[in-house]
Amino acid sequence: MDPFILSLLLGLSHGIEPDHVATARLLKSRWKIVQFALSHSAGFVIIAIPLVILIGDNKFLEIISNIIGIIFSILLLIQAIFDKEIDIGANKAGLLQGAFVITPTKVLVIVIASTAYSILYSIEVISVFIIASAVSIISLSLLNFVPKRVYKIVDVGIALLTMTYLIFLLIN
Q1: With 19 labelled, which of 3, 88, 150, 155 sits at a CA distance of 20 to 30 A?
Q2: Quick one: DSSP state of residue 143?
Q3: What sign does the CA torsion over 84, 89, 93, 99 have?
């Protein structure tokens, strides 16, 4: 599976998580929704890029990150099956939420980006994730569409694809 496709799917899945849709729907103007989505993405970039650089330069850390990615794929699967959101860390909106809330989708995209061929390629993988996430937050909020069970199906599929991908990387 191509890392860009996985990153795109993870970003779309991340954007439709209920806390993002709920937060965006609480905001009164379209501009505030856009600001929330963009600041949330910026917060993630602040954390993701240094982690990818650290992991990408160290084979041992790359193996550990793949194992962590598999664990978080399992958490994403559990989250989807049992309809219980898994967040680890502070739960703030915007920049703080993007930087400090650790969700399975974020961990998975960091792991996938760290297995990339170069830092530029890794940044492109992360960029696909944040653009897809921001677009899905903005679109769902502005269209006044709150998905009921759509994210469940998406998360199960993404969790299984990501587990397969990371297990394949570990075997090779």
Answers
A1: 3
A2: T
A3: negative
